[in-house]
Amino acid sequence: MKFFIDTANLADIREAQEMGILDGVTTNPSLMAKEGITGKDNVMRHYKQICEIVKNDVSAEVISVKFDEMIKEGEELAELDENIVVKVPMTGDGVKAIKYFSEKGIRTNCTLVFSAGQALLAAKAGATYVSPFVGRLDDISTDGMALIEQIVTIYTNYGYTTEVLAASVRHPMHIIQCAEIGADVMTSPLSVIKALLNHPLTDSGLAKFLADHEKAALPVKK
Ligand code: E4P
Asked: Rounded to 5 degrees, what are φ and ψ at 131?
């Protein structure tokens, strides 16, 4: 399973990249705003900076909601770097834009997906990735992980090549469940990825190994 980091924070992206486990980045307008990135030039510059850190897929979301404007914005984003994946919302215009981009060889990530029907449309339009939002479904007492399972089954049934990118991942068990189900990608904040490192037996085991090593190194009393 590919690990993407869901942030526009350059320090977090650098840290995840240095861990050696990072396969890509997803951003969205809220994450860009959180970093104080506003205005077209700054937004474009920021995506360039992300692409300099991570030589892998970077999802950059269009702000436009009308087909013609989405096309113009998506083409500009795609020109920034070969690793840019144009993120397009799941709307009628969005599906049309995904179809257009896929015919032009521009890769896309269909975002804000909350149902199997939406995922089916994204795949039929030729999306490179589909992003079902697990955590936001959980937030409204709906099983987000069940949607991942449903989409994986549907795509397998028909051999769709669209990759299932589990988004809105909130805790380490979400990551484990995604891997069990067979999601192609998961995207989460750095804190969730780092939570996978932790186990109390690892900590106590390491402390004992180091203490034993120190003891053995002490001079032997005669
Ligand atoms: C997906 O690509 C989104 O950026 C993201 O995963 C949304 O997560 P949130 O529900 O935690 O905001």
From this structure: -115, 90
